[in-house]
Amino acid sequence: MNSSLPMKLLTVVAIIAFLLVGCGTSSSTAASKLTVGALHVGSIHDLGYNEAMHDGLVEMKKNVPGIKLIEAENVPESADAERVMENMIGQGAKLIFAQSFGYLQPALNVAKRHPDVVFEHAAGNQLATNLGTFWSDTTAYEYLMGVVAGKSTKTNKLGWVIGYPVPNILTSINAFELGAKSVNPKATTQVIVDNAWVEPAKEAEAVNALADNGVDVATMIVDSPSTVVQTAAKRNIMSIGFHCLCVQSVAGKGWLTGIGFTWGSLFTQFANDVIAGKWKSKNIVGSLQQGYNAIAPYGSSASDSAKQLVTQDKSDLISGNLQIFKGPITDNQGTVRIPAGQVGDVNNLLTTTDWLVEGATGQIK
């Protein structure tokens, strides 16, 4: 405000500001002072990973009035990410979301230079004083997706398209196959590895190969599930989505259901904690019991019996009455991976699994 204004007017403004604070509007006022930056490795309209992250940020902005949001799309996982974050800080960002695994080291580097800025990194494995990490484990959800697939298939052949055969994805596939087998002992799962997170041509080719082999339910873990579900629709086979609930919009009549990340509540918590000065560096991992996922709305291809089984199994998983990796569990080479009387530790499996369960096949080495 200009210092030449009459003192009386300044006094009135000060009193009004004081009264507004006293009336409980301080959170909105404080929020208007928070600028949030977010880096995305792809397009925020990819119907997948990046769009789910974007949707969470939009919900955060809606929940915390006055936030200024700066987003950057298609940012390479390189030194370019550091430059983008520095630019955001130059625009006043005090909370930065680094939304891809490859942004971890760039974020750590920038965080060290800017101790007054808070960073949140997706799926990272290293913390700093001003950098936290977050994710949500979908293993139990994949078991439930397997139940739907196992009840829906007519050929007993299920298929996966994945970017890379990393431990957490192999754990998801194994959970899926075990879920399918729980309702359909004849169910098998074929896995095709693209060796790329985003490669629509390869993804379409993989779905076509699966369909040619008799697979009639296809799912995936790639950045955007769009190509997989659309190609499945063209081949008149069923599909199960991943990452974003929004992909159902292009899935066609073969849509069964899917898993969507729902980050809004967590991102809102981060923003409010930064505003209140209560933010602490920690690793947050959601789960079926308390996580940041949702089961997508069912399509017409999903039967009522499949839905009922999912409801019951979800309840049993949460209560502990159902254990996904209860031994004996054998891999597809005949090796016992989890002996009888033991239950596999999911946290360990997510970081060490390099095998496929009996009934699942694919070149993963």
Report the span from N to C terminus: 65 Å
Cα-atom radius of gyration: 23 Å
Total number of helices: 12
Please outline the major beta sheet.
Answer: 7 strands, mixed
Q: What share of residues is helical?
A: 40-55%
SSE sequence, one letter per element: HHEHEHEHEEHEHEHEHEEHEEHEEHE
Mean pLDDT score, rounded? Answer: 92
SS class: alpha/beta
Strand content: 15-25%
Tally the beta strands. Answer: 15
Could you list the spans in which at least 5 consecutive residues all have pLDDT below 50?
1-31
Widest β-sheet, arrangement of strands:
12-10-9-8-6-7-15
Shape: globular
Topology:
Elements: H1 7-22, H2 26-31, E1 35-39, H3 49-63, E2 68-72, H4 79-90, E3 93-98, H5 104-113, E4 118-122, E5 131-136, H6 139-152, E6 157-162, H7 167-183, E7 188-193, H8 200-212, E8 217-221, H9 226-234, E9 238-241, E10 255-261, H10 264-276, E11 283-286, E12 293-295, H11 304-319, E13 329-330, E14 336-338, H12 346-352, E15 360-361
Parallel strand pairs: 1-2, 1-3, 3-4, 4-5, 5-11, 6-7, 6-8, 7-15, 8-9, 9-10
Antiparallel strand pairs: 10-12, 13-14
Helix pairs in contact: 3-10, 4-5, 6-7, 6-11, 7-12, 8-9
What does this protein look like?
- With 365 residues, this protein is of the alpha/beta class.
- 41% of the residues lie in helices and 19% in strands.
- The protein is built from twelve helices and 15 strands.
- The chain starts with 6 loop residues before the first helix and ends with a strand.
- The N terminus is likely disordered.
Care to give the gist of this entry?
The protein is 41% helix and 19% strand. It is of the alpha/beta class and 365 residues long. The termini are far apart.
